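Course assignment 3, question 2. Fill in each field.
Student: A.L.
Task: Predict the tertiary structure for the chain below.
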Amino acid sequence: MVPFTLSGDPVPADAGSSAAYLAGGTTMADLMKLNVLTPEVVTFVRPALSAEVTEQADGLRVGAGCTMAALADHPVVRAKLPAVRHALILAASPQIRNLATVGGNLLQRTRCPYFRHTEYRCNKREPGSGCDAQEEGADRSLMAVLGVSDRCIANYPGDFAVAFAALGGSVETEHQDGRRTIPATDLHRLPGDEPHEETVLRPGELITHLRLPLSPAAANGWYCKVRERSSYAFALASAAVGLELDGDAVKSCHVALGGVGVKPWRSPEAEAALTGGPATDEAFAVAAEAALAPASPPEGTEYKVKLAKRTLVYALQRLRDEGPPDDATLFALQHGREFG
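Answer field:
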């Protein structure tokens, strides 16, 4: 492991990969132990970050230092943003959720084994080195099917960011050149020819706050997560959905997919297919087809296209018929139990 210095000074704009910010460190520390990340200077920013959650006219303004657990338990999130609560409590473990900050959680890195093990070639870790995940014989079963390129097929692993994108959230940042607001759907980049450039954040730029809009569709939401085991596992496919219903019609909606994209994948195609139409199983199937139409599954990931479609349809059906699941129902669903 490369020696590093824990600093209280801001990361300079020209520091590049030699410097990094740390708040909770639940992902970053692991990657430093693996020598995947080797910053020379780590700036501990948690004391400088607000953890306050404030309800405003247009939604919640959340300090980036708020923990995942604290945001999940906020009364407004419980009452008006169920998909956000679900995504947060279905992520990681209680110990991690009590330490990890929501700002840092948005920036977590892929769990692609070819990225996390330095004996493999990875364009995301070492630009221009190649992508062993796309070589013959590679295990691609957990890779992305949406937004992939010939340089990178690694999927984005997080849960909260999927719900955050579905709702049309945004982040506020600070940089030596000034402050700006970035929509959640623009925060993460597609890999293209530069998979090592994962977000639009500039060197030295820090997320200080998150904005979570409130809406009728957001209040009737669910984050449905399909995974290989019932806890402490990343999504094979997930759907963050919200429906505002006017009788049997969809007045407005939110749709985003997780576990299948190189970034949190909001689907305006699915939203357009649903809005103004009937909330029927047939309409949900059409929306799922629209959401996965851009998919380009690498060999070995084809099952994810079908799984994502079924996950989205199931989430929409259950939300229409039952509404957002309460905590007991969410637990039962995630553990494969029957309930009445």
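Instructor remarks: The chain has a mean pLDDT of 93. The domain at 47-107+156-213 is CATH 3.30.465.10 (Uridine Diphospho-n-acetylenolpyruvylglucosamine Reductase; domain 3).
Grade: pending
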